[in-house]
């Protein structure tokens, strides 16, 4: 049974929203908020953050939409467009001011499982030391139909496969994620204490801020767990492709920002862990080297082979011993040759 304190706690959803006038965005937001209305535990509220949308009637649309909801939804308006991460930071700060101690991220086109609030409240109530908890995801298309794994893009298929690996629980699991897993959770599957989100805000970058921030969460010493049986509906359109890739200027531009932003987050996590005495600098260098190997392979498979080779070359230069131990003979030879010809 939940304690008296935990029963009084609500889960504060933080939802960034950007409206460029396309009807599907508003349709998706209605469905997203509808998934909150269907929660089996009514102890939730939401902070819906308009990321300085260019559509002229966004404020009126959001006011009308939220006025009809049974749950408490606060609409915030960012002063300028700065991306989903910065919009989330505004929601996090507002939740903190209102005394909310538990957060759940949810993007404006994804769907919360009906039992998410109940499960998250129970898990955090059972473990006062828990800082962060993630759930699995289910891929759905623009019509809400499930995806078959073989139809997903390579990067999404990898995420689908990796969420079947043993779950990450405990502390210092950022090292395993960096070395062996492309990601463990999209933002819409993240739940955490407000104190952690305040201590480690999202970076001011437009893309891949989620993985970078996750590295920083866990590198700070946060305790992680997995919430079973509440998969988030992660919307991936069958037509039109990835919005992030389009907005960034294409696959290669997106992958370049991905490599830069994720690495910055991981390097900060390593520096924090070294300061805490959780790892030494040698271990941190080994983790970064293995991350570069992994991300190099990932972006190569995603259509950026030259970028992938540059990541392998950097890994080789950073830690030749670790690089030799964890790469194939072909990767080692290619990276060595690339280093010689620079």
Short description:
With 342 residues, this protein is of the alpha/beta class.
Description:
The protein is built from 15 helices and 9 strands. It has 342 residues and is an alpha/beta fold. The protein has 2 domains: 4-239, Spore Coat Polysaccharide Biosynthesis Protein SpsA, Chain A (Alpha-Beta Complex); 247-341, no CATH class. The strands form 2 sheets. It has a 7-stranded mixed beta sheet with strand order 3-2-1-4-7-5-8, with helices on both faces. Residues 1-7 have low confidence and may be disordered. It comes from Streptomyces kaempferi. This is Glycosyltransferase family 2 protein. Residues 323-342 are annotated as: Disordered. Residues 15-150 form the Glycosyltransferase 2-like domain.
Could you tell me the mean pLDDT? Answer: 92
**Which class do the helix and strand fractions yield?**
alpha/beta
What is the annotated CATH architecture of the largest domain?
Alpha-Beta Complex
Reading the helices and strands in chain order gives HEHEHEHEHEEHHEHHEEHHHHHH
Distance between the first and last residues' Cα: 63 Å
- How many separate domains make up the residues? 2
User: Biggest β-sheet: count, sense, barrel?
Assistant: 7 strands, mixed
| Oligomeric category | single chain
How does the overall form come out from the CA principal axes? globular
Instruction: Kindly estimate the percentage of residues that lie in beta strands according to DSSP.
Output: 5-15%
Q: What is the CATH third-level topology name of the largest domain?
A: Spore Coat Polysaccharide Biosynthesis Protein SpsA, Chain A
The spatial strand order of the largest sheet comes to 3-2-1-4-7-5-8
Helical content class: 40-55%
Organism: Streptomyces kaempferi
Protein name: Glycosyltransferase family 2 protein
InterPro entries: Glyco_trans_2-like, Glycosyltransf_2, Nucleotide-diphossugar_trans
Pfam family, one: Glycos_transf_2
């Amino acid at each position: 049974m939940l304690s008296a304190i935990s029963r009084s706690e609500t889960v504060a959803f933080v939802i960034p929203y950007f409206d460029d006038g396309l009807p599907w965005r508003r349709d998706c937001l209605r469905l997203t908020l509808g998934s909150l209305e269907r929660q089996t535990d009514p102890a939730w509220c939401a902070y819906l953050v308009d990321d300085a949308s260019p559509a002229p009637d966004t404020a009126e649309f959001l006011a009308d939409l939220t006025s009809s909801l049974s749950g408490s939804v606060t609409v915030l308006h960012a002063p300028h467009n700065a991306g989903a991460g910065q919009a989330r930071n505004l929601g996090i700060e507002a939740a903190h001011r209102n005394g909310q101690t538990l957060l759940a991220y949810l993007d404006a086109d994804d769907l919360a499982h009906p039992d998410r609030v109940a499960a998250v409240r129970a898990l955090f109530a059972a473990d006062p030391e828990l800082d962060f908890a993630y759930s699995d995801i289910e891929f759905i298309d623009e019509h809400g139909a499930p995806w078959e794994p073989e139809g997903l893009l390579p990067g999404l298929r990898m995420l689908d496969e990796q969420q079947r690996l043993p779950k990450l629980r405990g502390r210092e699991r950022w090292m395993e994620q960096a070395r062996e897993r492309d990601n463990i959770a999209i933002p819409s599957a993240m739940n955490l204490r407000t104190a952690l989100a305040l201590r480690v805000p999202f970076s001011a970058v437009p893309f891949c801020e989620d993985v970078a921030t996750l590295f920083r969460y866990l590198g700070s010493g946060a305790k992680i767990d997995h919430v079973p049986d509440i998969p988030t509906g992660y919307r991936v359109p069958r037509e039109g492709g990835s919005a992030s890739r389009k907005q960034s200027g294409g696959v290669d531009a997106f992958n370049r920002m991905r490599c830069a932003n994720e690495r910055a987050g991981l390097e900060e996590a390593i520096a924090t862990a070294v300061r805490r005495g959780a790892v030494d600098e040698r271990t941190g260098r080994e983790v970064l080297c293995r991350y570069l190997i992994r991300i190099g392979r990932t972006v190569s498979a995603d259509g950026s082979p030259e970028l992938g080779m540059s990541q392998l070359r950097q890994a080789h230069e950073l830690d030749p011993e670790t690089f030799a131990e964890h790469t194939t003979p072909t990767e080692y030879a290619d990276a060595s040759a690339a280093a010689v010809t620079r």
